[in-house]
Amino acid sequence: MFSINEIVKITGLPASTLRYYEEVGILPVVNRNSGGRREYSEEILEWLELIIALKNTGMTIEEIKAYTDLILQGDETLDARKDFLSAHKMKVEKSVLQTQLHLEKIIRKIAIYDILMYKQTSDKKTLL
């Protein structure tokens, strides 16, 4: 079991975010010890890592909640869950492709600056 402080260190999420995820229902029930402090299992840590991945790839809290709700409904939602993640995967792939195209434009622009700067340096040398 992990304390909330350990989960904060592992995931980089603030404690307030962990409590919010619990409040909105995207984090499964978190057990509490005899002192009332949250205790996070390895399974919850794995779930948090998935939430972080989904969030960092553009999935909204509302979408993560919808996905969580499907999971809580049990195995009869396996197809729906797979379809849900497949649709998200397609969005992420499109975003990655778009980012790659933008990166290539930036690389070309840097190459142009390199050429201009080299030319500037070369021109100065011929004047001396």
Descriptive keywords:
5 helices, 3% strand, 128 residues, mainly alpha, two-stranded antiparallel sheet
What do these coordinates show?
With 128 residues, the protein is mostly helical. It has 5 helices and 2 strands, in the order ααββααα. It has helices spanning 4-11, 15-24, 42-56, 61-72, 78-127, and strands spanning 31-32, 38-39. The chain has a two-stranded antiparallel sheet with strand order 1-2. Strand 1 and strand 2 (38-39) form a beta hairpin. The mean pLDDT is 91.
What does the radius of gyration come to? 24 Å
The 3D shape can be described as elongated
Tell me about the largest β-sheet.
2 strands, antiparallel
Low confidence ranges: none
Q: What's the total helix number? A: 5
Q: Count the strands?
A: 2
SS-based class = mainly alpha
Brief summary:
The chain is built from 5 helices and 2 strands. By secondary structure, it is mainly alpha-helical. The longest helix has 50 residues.
Note the topology:
Layout: H1 4-11, H2 15-24, E1 31-32, E2 38-39, H3 42-56, H4 61-72, H5 78-127
Antiparallel strand pairs: 1-2
